[in-house]
Amino acid sequence: FEVRATRLPARGVDGSLVMVTLHDITALRRLEQMRADFVANASHELRTPLSSLIGFTETLATSAREDSAAREQFLAIMLEQGRRMQRLIEDLLSLSRIEMEEHTPPSDPINLREVIGGVARFLEIRAREKNMDIRLEGEDAPVVVIGDGDQLTQIFQNLLDNALKYGRPSTPVVVRWTQVERGPAAMPAAVRAPCLRVSVIDQGEGIAKEHLPRLTERFYRVDKARSRAMGGTGLGLAIVKHVVVRHRGAMTLESEIGKGTTINLFLPLYEPTLG
Ligand code: ADP
């Protein structure tokens, strides 16, 4: 609490009165702390590949100049570190763009089957590398939500990318959509019933219960080194959550160690019925 004292105008012969008010500033402080943490985390995440780029450039400019094998190896590392910085900056820009638009709900009718189909085709080659396939399961009728096509594409890309990254080789990733009677309480009441549920289901290593509530925080990862090694930025699920909130939807996570993970998105339907 912050205590504020205000001197009121003098009254009568006893002199002035003082009004003391208590202001709850915990929420404000928490927000300030979150912003400070975010800037520190983002700077740290960018500094690591940048240091590596500078280090290898220096080595190439001096000792490794004449060694063609070393040169090739260093250039490959530098390219990867540059790409890593690019991914981070793209994700950071996406997040800030989504945040800026957070209070203007999207208004376009979007056929989600087309969005999901497009993302699945785009990731087909990646899936095949792990002998996995992406199965689409749902009603044939068009599934239309009120949305932002680019942002919806991005969140399904992030979710399927994770499912392929963390899924076990030779297992399928399933995207299943269905109309449900009621969305979770986190959804605005006006659009909660009926709504659309889209689940992205993998048969991977799963996530321990204690991590689940924190996964949508920026830069939160279960295993930092592993996520980095796989090219992750730690921002994918934060982006998903922000887009879902902007769409007046909700997101739930279910996971079991050794069995797999299911991420459910609930989105308002464009029309009261499918089709
Ligand atoms: P990243 O870029 O690290 O994948 P995300 O924000 O997409 O970042 O996910 C945050 C963390 O959540 C990941 O680092 C990983 O530990 C965990 N995670 C996300 N999706 C899955 C999944 N399908 N299976 C297991 N773990 C997952």
UniProtKB/TrEMBL annotation:
Keywords for this protein: Kinase, Membrane, Phosphoprotein, Transferase, Two-component regulatory system
GO BP of this protein: cellular response to phosphate starvation
First-level EC class: transferase
Enzyme Commission designation: 2.7.13.3
GO molecular function: phosphoprotein phosphatase activity; phosphorelay sensor kinase activity
Tagged with keyword Lyase: no
Coiled-coil features, chain-numbered ranges: none
Catalytic activity of the protein: ATP + protein L-histidine = ADP + protein N-phospho-L-histidine
Keyword set includes Amino-acid biosynthesis: no
One GO CC term on file: plasma membrane
Domain (Histidine kinase) ranges: 41-271
Protein name: histidine kinase
Organism listed in the record: Pararhodospirillum photometricum DSM 122
The organism's taxonomic lineage, starting at the top: Bacteria, Pseudomonadati, Pseudomonadota, Alphaproteobacteria, Rhodospirillales
